[in-house]
Specification:
Layout lengths: L4 H7 L5 E3 L2 E4 L3 H9 L3 E4 L3 E7 L3 H8 L12 E7 L5 E9 L3 E7 H13 L7 E4 L3 E7 L4 H8 L9 E3 L25 E7 L11 E3 L1 H10 L5 H4 L12 H4 L10 H10 L4 E8 L12 E4 L2 E12 L3 E9 L7 E5 L2 E9 L32
Parallel strand pairs: 3-12
Antiparallel strand pairs: 1-2, 3-9, 4-7, 4-8, 5-6, 6-7, 9-11, 10-11, 13-16, 13-18, 14-15, 14-17, 15-16, 17-18
């Protein structure tokens, strides 16, 4: 957590509860959720950090080492990327914003040091520099409300482009693929934005906006089934398991570390685990935490990755389950209490196997309109 005048100003507001250096809530997380979802409130994202990648080779270099096609990114465009290990497992994740002179990466704070160090090791002779920008802070808000114009105006613009990242999760991105088979994906309404601001200079300019805490922001993320490095990623995570190919993987781009596994699992199907959404029994006094085991009968079939109380849906969670876990109701065990959980399948057990794609990755471009779940490259 980077302490700044902006953080201090929001933390000094009435009712603010600061936990571990971040602002959790202001006394009424449900009201904060409603205001945040309506675009009338902003949240100081003290659990995230900015990394600047500058230099002439920044886009081609990042393209060569990550899951995303970045070579054609233009000033003001947003996307996201994953960095995979040689076995295709997720190591790092970041939001991406290009401003014509630099690429701005938004990462979970707990991953920033490792991500920046890995990027530094990969520079070699490329004309790039990697800098963790501790002078910058992040504000989250939803597009379409009262906060958008004011926060966007307060965003830093060192190269003439306002630094506002548009989360791509609201739709299947070019080169991506959605495994979820729901007709109305909850992510379609998730028009999340993150403004990069000069932490000290923006404090007074943003004083008029209503504030929401991180608990509110997380509840809306969980409701949208949106995966996050700090929630859904562990040492075994493949992007297929959480439907992250939807927004962070380009299936038609060239070689990068882990690509063979991405192509194999997508073309042949059957990722070993799958993400599910759980509607928890609201009568229980206990709300499970990340890591709580999930059972089908007497068999442990997975664990909770993220949990929240939603202002409309009540207690909800995301869980990573074994591919063979049944698709019916489950039980979450928290502090010795069994909590009934209605399951909604996000990633089917046969994800990828039913995808009508050519077997060779380099030929995976398809004619427009053949599959509504597949974005066009």
């Amino acid at each position: 957590m980077i302490v700044s005048a902006l953080h201090d100003a929001f933390a000094a507001r009435p009712g603010a509860v600061v936990d571990g250096g971040t602002i959790s809530h202001y006394g009424d997380p449900m009201r904060e959720q409603r205001r945040l979802a309506a675009g009338s409130a902003v949240a100081v994202l003290g659990d995230r950090t900015v990394i600047e990648v500058a230099g002439d080779d920044r886009l081609t270099w990042l393209d060569s080492i990550t899951s995303q096609d970045l070579t054609t990114l233009t000033a003001g465009q947003s996307t996201e990327l994953l960095i995979l290990d040689p076995q295709g497992r997720v190591e790092h994740a970041a939001g991406v914003l290009e401003d014509g002179s630099s690429v701005w990466l938004i990462s979970d704070g707990a991953d920033t040091e490792a991500l920046a160090a890995w990027l530094q090791r990969m520079v070699f002779r490329s004309r790039v520099t990697v800098t963790v920008r501790e002078d910058l802070a992040l504000l989250g808000f939803f597009a379409g409300g009262d906060a958008e114009a004011g926060v966007s105006a307060a965003a830093a613009a060192p190269n003439g482009v306002a630094l506002v990242w548009a989360d791509p999760w609201h739709a299947v991105q070019a080169g991506g693929y959605q495994y979820s088979e729901v007709v109305e994906h909850p992510g379609a309404e998730y028009h999340w934005r993150v403004a990069i601001v000069e932490a000290d200079a923006a404090a007074s300019a943003l004083s008029a906006f209503e504030a929401a805490g991180l608990i509110a922001a997380e509840a809306l993320r969980v409701a949208a089934w949106r995966p996050r490095w700090g929630g859904e990623v562990d040492e075994r995570s493949l992007p297929h398991e959480s439907d992250w190919i939807r927004s962070a993987v380009h299936l038609s781009k060239g070689c990068y570390r882990g690509q063979e596994t991405v192509a194999k699992v997508h073309n042949l199907g059957h990722p070993p685990r799958r993400l599910a959404a759980l509607q928890l029994d609201g009568s229980a006094d206990v709300l499970p935490t990340a890591g709580a085991p999930v059972f089908a009968g007497d068999d442990e079939v997975g664990h909770i990755t993220s949990v929240a109380r939603h202002f409309e849906d009540g207690p909800i969670a995301l869980a990573i389950l074994s591919r063979r876990a049944p698709t019916g109701d489950l039980v979450v065990r928290a502090d010795g209490v069994d909590i009934a959980a209605a399951q909604q399948v996000i990633v089917p057990a046969d994800a990828g196997a039913t995808a009508d794609v050519p077997r060779l990755t380099r030929l995976s471009r398809r004619a427009e309109g053949q599959d509504p779940r597949r974005a066009q490259a």
